[in-house]
Amino acid sequence: MTYKIDFERNRVKIQGIKKKFRVLGLHQIPENAEITNAYLIKKPTGYYLYVVCYLWKEEALKGIEEKQFSIPVGIDLGVKDQVSLTTGEKIRWYIPETKRLKRLQRTLARRKKGSKNYLKAKSLIQKEWEYVKNRREDVKNKVMSYLKRFSFIAFQDDSIKGWHEGLFGKQVQNTGIGGITARLRRLATLIPVEFVDRYEPTTQTCSKCGFRYKLELSQRIFECPRCGLRIDRDLNSAWNILKLGLEQLAQKNKALAYRLMSALPVDRGEVKPVEREASAPCFVPGVSSLVEAGSPSLQ
Ligand SMILES: [Zn+2]
User: Fold this and answer.
1) 149, 40 in Cβ contact below 8 A?
2) How far is the CA of 256 from the centre of ligand 1 (A)?
3) What separation in Å is there between the alpha carbon of 89 and the centre of ligand 1?
4) Which end of the chain is more exposed for a tag (fewer CB within 10 A), N or C?
């Protein structure tokens, strides 16, 4: 709780420790931040100081204002394409365990447990793990800083749970998409964010006319038998998520929701809560027999 930071000399004084620490990366602390707490953490690669600080909202959004998009965005989270946006953009990443990590793990297996060489190999593995984790975090940071530019975000909550166990376990792990929803939630302190219920059948519903049919997992294109819409499966889902998100928002802040809707492309003019209620009553959660509880990702 008691510490002193010397920004000029890159030194930090921490209560209870006589010597000053020489630190790297003090520039990461924003200028007008109010530091509330700091933790000294030991990681395989060394000691780290985690600094928690408060920033005024305006300050936190600084620098992204000029790049700000006026449009709202719906986000579909997936295994194949991790992030699909209503803008048609897809963000994919895959950061597997490194070859070095696998090699080190084999080495460790050959060492005698508890021996000096064993401990050495173990420490190298931990360091390598940290490196892989850092790379995954880095991608997520970059994705977040891009998403931060939209005027509104809608995503489907908890859609990643269940993937971890099932078919996609390894793949989910390797992309580290897991932390994404938590981060999206945190974005809500900066920009309006709505989470759509995980049981909403966003994959199986036509984002144009509301018609529903069960899509096979292998079907990458949603083809609506009623209105003829042909659209990428994840993109269709992202549009449904955006619609639902905007409806939720409309219940809290009608003016904002309508302003955001008017910023959408003209061919998406049908995104209006009133119409959806009239044309697609089957949206009501719990009513549909198509929704398989517990496996929303397999819709
Ligand atoms: Zn349709």
Assistant:
1) no
2) 27
3) 22
4) N
CA 123 to chain centre: 30
Q: Tokens 């994959």: give the residue.
A: 203
- pTM (2 decimals)? 0.75
**Dist. CA 222 → ligand 1 center (Å):** 9
Can you tell me the distance from the alpha carbon of 272 to that of 261, in angstroms, rounded to the nearest whole number?
8
Please give the full DSSP string across 174-207, using - where no structure is assigned: HHTGGGHHHHHHHHTTTS-EEEEPTTS--SSB-T
Q: Is 9 exposed, middle or buried (0-12, 13-18, 19+ CB in 10 A)?
A: exposed
CA angle at 124 for the pair 120 and 127, rounded to the nearest 5°: 140
d(CA 4, CA 237): 50
For 39, phi then psi, to 5°, come to: -125, 135
What is the residue whose two structure tokens read 């932390």? 179
pLDDT tens for 62-99 read 766 666 778 899 999 887 778 999 999 999 888 888 99
